[in-house]
Amino acid sequence: MAIESGAGTAGEAAPGCTDDLAYDVFARDCPSRDALKHVTDRWGSLTLGALLDGTFRFNELRRRVDGVSEKMLAQALHALERDGLVHREAQQSNPPRVDYALTPLGDQVARQLRLLIDLVEDRMPQVLQARERYDARHLTE
């Protein structure tokens, strides 16, 4: 496991993490938990998935991620940029232009998310059937 600068070396616990792992998402205070939260929350994962298609301006991205508010998209982009997954480039033009794209790390993460997104979409018939069975059992109680 490669550790980024400032975090120690493999086998050396990062601040807030357990002694067994350099980063442990199951440890309450480990910084990896926040990174996982940013990647897996609804708007973070959809934003990363959308950015796999290329560079977007803010409003283009907002249209692609249907249902996201300006505020929530801005928060997701800020968190993903801070985590090194998204690159924000402001162009000096009139009107001002800001482009968002995946970093190399963001591309790696987004590709893994895309596999999960594809799996969920492919398995939706089974999910919907399971929901129907669950609802039928629990609505009669």
UniProtKB/TrEMBL annotation:
Keyword match Repeat: no
InterPro entries: HTH_HxlR, WH-like_DNA-bd_sf, WH_DNA-bd_sf
Gene source species: Streptomyces auratus AGR0001
A Pfam family the protein falls into: HxlR
The entry's keywords: DNA-binding, Transcription, Transcription regulation
Alphabetized GO MF terms: DNA binding
Superkingdom as given in the UniProt entry: Bacteria
Domain HTH hxlR-type: 30-128
Name of the protein in its database record: Helix-turn-helix transcriptional regulator
